[in-house]
Amino acid sequence: MPLTLARKDPGSFKTLALHVEADGHQLHYQGIGLPLNFAQMQARRRPVQIGNSQQFSVELANLGVSVRLTLHLDGRDYWVVVRQQRADRGDCVLKLISGYVPAHELNLPLLTALHEVAEECLVQSEAGWLCGRFAQTWLPTPYADTLDYHDEQHFSLQAQAGSTHPVLRGQMPLLERPFAYVHLPTASLQLVYNMRLELPSLARELSLFHADERLIGGHLVAELQPDEPDLYLIPLHRGHPTSELYTLQQGMLDPVDTRQPLWLSEAFAERDGWLVHDERIAWQDWIQRLRAA
Questions:
Q1: What is the pLDDT of residues 85-108, one digit of tens each?
Q2: By the 8 A CB rule, do 229 and 208 touch?
Q3: Of the four, 36, 41, 122, 148, which is 20 to 30 A from 287 by CA?
Q4: Exposed, middle or buried by CB within 10 Å (0-12, 13-18, 19+), for 197?
């Protein structure tokens, strides 16, 4: 049975549409128009066409953030991905931890990225659930009313190497230099932060879970499925992803059968300059492209 962690009113979410300009060196974005609620934002997420992938000016529906999270575990590095049923696109994919940026964080989307890690990546040890810290900033504990967070142990987030092509809100460069792409099928600008997660050395019997939100009865409900962790690890070899996939439960890595049909989100698809054309990419196609690179 799923465990309900929190309920939110989707009506409290407000964001802005974007005006985006890009050239071969950098990308600028700026919020435009009146605030949009969740339904109004979704109504704008319709396919858009851009003729030149390196230089353009376009209006887009929203800003999204993702975190390419590298987990260090027992001397080896792993990418973290989560499974999500995407009702708006009618599919199920493995994706990076991600979310929509509200209007009040358009100046500092890094905050949204950190909040998404706190909400979506749940780390459990034998002593309780672990909260997180980024530099001198504690991550929120969004499920403190339901989960028993450990008082003395926490995981640490660190920024890794960012993009060589700056992304600016107006004329202000963004902190931690996220990667950026325009997703044409949803008319959205997506920022990808490159981060590393370090676990406390004293933590034992670690398990990783994904908390996913669903719209139920007019509320966004965050749920945890104890028997379906929905958080997966892709091992890296010399910094490059391999063809293996695991879950982590009570300190044990359990392999996942990748011969079954698996799809990855557009963040893993091929990029054309600043643009991504595809909705998703099949796991096997992604592996073949990695091997050919």
A1: 877 777 889 999 999 999 999 999
A2: yes
A3: 122
A4: buried
